[in-house]
Every structure is written in structure tokens, then in C-alpha cells.
Amino acid sequence: YKYIFINGNLNLGVFLQCASLLSLIFIKKYNGEKGKSFKYAFYAFYPIHILLLYIISNFLLI
């Protein structure tokens, strides 16, 4: 465990490698077909989340 925890803190590199193993679940479940298209949902999501981040940053800095 000395490589996973350094001074009682979780090592970021080890954490990211372990978390990346979760992608294997999605790779294994892929059946070769194109999934649903969420194109317009992403067009709406991007500016809304930027606006929310801007509002939150201004709220926290005041």
C-alpha cells in the first residue's frame, strides 16, 4: 500500500489508472452499433453549463 497512499493521501496516478479500468466495462458492452444521437442536447448543455460555472464562480468570489 505504500504506492497507493503517500503520506496518508491517495496517489493521483494510481487512482486514475484504477478509474480508467472502469472504461473496460463500456468497451466490453459495445455491440458495434451506433448509439442514440444526443447532438441537440449537447448543443444546449454546453452554454448552460458554462453559464452555471460563471454564476457559481462569481457567487463564490463575492
Short description:
The chain has 62 residues and is mostly helical.
How would you describe this structure to a colleague?
Helices cover about 65% and strands about 5% of the residues. The protein has about 60 residues and is mainly α. It has one domain (about 5-60). The protein has a two-stranded antiparallel ribbon with strand order 1-2. It is flat, with a radius of gyration of 19 Å. The model has no long low-confidence stretch (mean pLDDT about 85).
Name the strands of the widest sheet in spatial order. Answer: 1-2
The end-to-end span amounts to 42 Å
Biggest sheet, open or closed, and with what strands and sense? 2 strands, antiparallel
Number of helices: 3
The SS-based structural class is mainly alpha
- Poorly predicted runs of 5 or more residues: none
Radius of gyration over C-alpha positions, nearest whole angstrom: 19 Å
Proportion of helical residues: 55-70%
Rough outline: flat
| Number of beta strands | 2
Number of domains: 1
Q: How large is the share of residues in beta strands?
A: 5-15%
Q: What pattern of helices and strands is seen along the backbone?
A: EEHHH
For the residues shown, what is the average pLDDT? 84
